[in-house]
Amino acid sequence: MRHQIVAGNWKMHKNLSETHVLLDELIELLPTGKEVEVIVAPAFTNLASAVNHLEGTNIQVAAQNMHQAEGGAFTGEISAQMLLSVGVETVIIGHSERRHYFKETDAILADKVNTALRHNMRVIYCIGEELKDRESKQYLNVNFNQLRDGLFHLSKAQWEHIVIAYEPVWAIGTGETATPEQAQEIHAFIRQEIERQYDKTVAENTSILYGGSVKPNNAKEIFSKPDVDGGLIGGAALVAADFAAIVAAI
Ligand code: PEP
User: What is the third-level CATH fold of 6-30+40-68+77-240?
Assistant: First the structure.
């Protein structure tokens, strides 16, 4: 069965000492005894230290990105085996900021997914439409194309390692949130398309997270929808009390 997950994407925030402070606050404030996986994704420079800091807790560490090559002359990049060597087994791939600012196409992202899976890593794969796609009523097509081009080449068995994050670009960091009904519509659509491509078991076992201005005051309503299995949280993940409240809302 699929898991409920709340993941915090820290983006390019928090240096090493700030990372430790936020992790200590989370250890203190996160609710215990909940059936929810909690993941944090600090910057590359702080991953190894975060893994050590969180030893013995239930909080997992993910990377925000990785390169698709096994290694070599790719100045400034980080490989799957480098992440694994510091204890990071989950990676976010396809965040809209990577697609937009770093021109990561679906083909590049599919390569990254393949590399991560070759190393037995878990992938949180982000998809989501822009405002213009919603306004022109193309949002289902856009989400379908991203899903198909990034993930539909995988085998059924590989889907065990895939988590999807639906993140409408117009809701990321804008304070504008999809309504719970809008989120449910897309999540149900994603699950239906996974079932169409694979089967009901794969569809039912895939966790689909919502991301886009999730805050303590809207998390409960969004998470209450049947096809929403948790959230990928940006801004609110940087404030321990807010992130803890969002985890508690599951
Ligand atoms: C994100 O960047 O993945 C995100 C959802 O950001 P925010 O929560 O700040 O909208």
Answer: TIM Barrel (3.20.20)
